[in-house]
């Protein structure tokens, strides 16, 4: 009870704001309460579009520089502190912000909690209008598993969550991706106790993420792995073809104490014939 009050107090203004938006969508626009939640989800995701663009760019940078970051992790495998320092320095040099990929999800979490309190208030004091959705969920304020239609919604949630995870986990390794794909199967037992309207909100945002991923893959060209636009100070320079086997043709100085390089001759020396002087046989 105390924990619930501590969470609800800072989110009270956001809860009132969501309630006013839902009332406006239902009363002024004329949408049913369930479709008002869908419209609210679209509005929230449109507000987060600038952060979503940064998220996409951050994921592209992580994918582009993945080979270099793996080299750093492998080089400093025994020293985790040094590994983190080198990775942070690499991020600064290449203008990579790993936290940018998590910002849209973190900012949606308070909306998720505030909407939970709004729907809980709907369950205690039902507003005017029909709270059912598509005639197979009696009320979006009731628990998801209170009717057979809620189980259908949970199946759609699991499928949409797996699809959105597939698009948003392109930069992680295979093991982590498998864990992310299995997480919805674990969370479904927790989400089943949430109001159906809250699951509807999450399904809508998952479908938005899937559509966003499809559009991004079609419009943004893929960068070949290992092909970088800029080099890091840790990337060793590649030897050019003109440097192979020459002894200083590229202007390199020999090491101190070492033998001096012999200049390469372009052609054999010419033989000069001496003319005989007159009177001599």
Summarize the structure.
The chain has 281 residues and is mainly α.
Structural notes for this entry:
This protein is mainly α and 281 residues long. The longest helix has 26 residues, at 2-27. Helices cover 59% and strands 0% of the residues. The chain is built from nine helices and no strands. It has helices spanning 2-27, 33-47, 49-64, 66-75, 80-93, 103-124, 148-168, 174-191, 196-219. It has one domain. α4 (66-75) runs antiparallel to α5 (80-93), α6 (103-124) packs antiparallel against α9 and α7 (148-168) runs antiparallel to α8 (174-191).
Using brief descriptors, characterize the structure shown.
281 residues; mainly alpha; 59% helix; elongated
List the helices and strands and how they pair.
Elements: H1 2-27, H2 33-47, H3 49-64, H4 66-75, H5 80-93, H6 103-124, H7 148-168, H8 174-191, H9 196-219
């Amino acid at each position: 009870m105390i924990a619930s009050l501590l969470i609800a107090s800072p989110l009270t203004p956001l809860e009132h704001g969501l309630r006013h938006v839902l009332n406006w969508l239902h009363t002024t626009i004329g949408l049913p309460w369930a479709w008002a939640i869908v419209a609210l989800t679209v509005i929230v995701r449109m507000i987060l579009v600038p952060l979503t663009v940064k998220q996409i760019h951050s994921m592209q940078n992580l994918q582009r520089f993945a080979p270099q970051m793996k080299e750093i992790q492998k080089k400093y495998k025994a020293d985790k502190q040094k590994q983190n320092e080198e990775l942070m320095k690499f991020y600064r040099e290449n203008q990579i912000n790993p936290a940018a990929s998590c910002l849209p999800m973190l900012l949606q979490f308070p909306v998720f909690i505030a909407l939970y309190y709004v729907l809980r208030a709907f369950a205690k004091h039902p507003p005017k209008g029909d709270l059912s959705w598509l005639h197979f969920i009696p009320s979006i304020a009731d628990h998801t598993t209170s009717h057979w239609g809620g189980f259908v919604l949970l199946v759609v949630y699991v499928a949409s969550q797996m699809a959105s995870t597939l698009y948003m986990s392109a930069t992680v390794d295979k093991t982590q991706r498998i864990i992310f794909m299995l997480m919805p199967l674990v969370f479904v037992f927790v989400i089943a106790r949430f109001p159906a309207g809250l699951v509807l909100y999450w399904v809508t945002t998952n479908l938005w993420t899937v559509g966003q991923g499809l559009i991004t893959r079609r419009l943004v060209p893929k960068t070949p792995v290992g092909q970088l636009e800029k080099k890091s100070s840790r990337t060793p320079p590649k030897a050019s073809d003109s440097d192979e086997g020459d002894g200083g043709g590229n202007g390199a100085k020999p090491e101190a104490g070492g033998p001096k390089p012999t200049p390469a001759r372009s052609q054999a020396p010419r033989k000069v014939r001496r003319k005989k002087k007159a009177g001599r046989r």
